[in-house]
Design brief:
about 110 residues; virulence; alpha+beta; LysM; single chain; LysM_dom_sf
């Protein structure tokens, strides 16, 4: 009886490996198809417009209770402008003392 349990365990392990490999092969094919589709829509570097580098000229440290929107409003900015000046900020994870830019211009 013990021999049958060992054989059954080996069979189950082999089937799990086979299913895992087959599943991985499908995922790789899907990624390859997506990459090939994306390659058809690449914008040549000569056609791409580089974003102008901004230099921040006015900064402020966030205080308790302030949000991106409230700081933008107090600084006389739209939220859109605030986010352009602060492209790396995550408005859902701000913290007291975090420096934000309130005025920027091209260099």
């Amino acid at each position: 009886m013990a021999k049958n349990h060992g054989a059954a365990g080996l069979l189950i392990a082999s089937l799990l490996v086979a299913v895992t490999l087959a599943d991985a092969r499908v995922a790789v094919q899907v990624r390859r198809d997506l990459n090939e589709a994306a390659a058809d829509h690449v914008v040549p570097a000569s056609d791409a417009k580089a974003a102008a580098a901004l230099t921040c000229s006015k900064v402020q440290g966030l205080k308790a209770g302030e949000t991106c929107f409230s700081v933008a409003l107090l600084g006389g900015l739209t939220l859109e402008s605030f986010l352009v000046f602060n492209p790396n900020i995550d408005c859902g994870k701000t913290f007291v003392g975090q420096w934000v830019c309130l005025h920027a211009s091209t260099a």
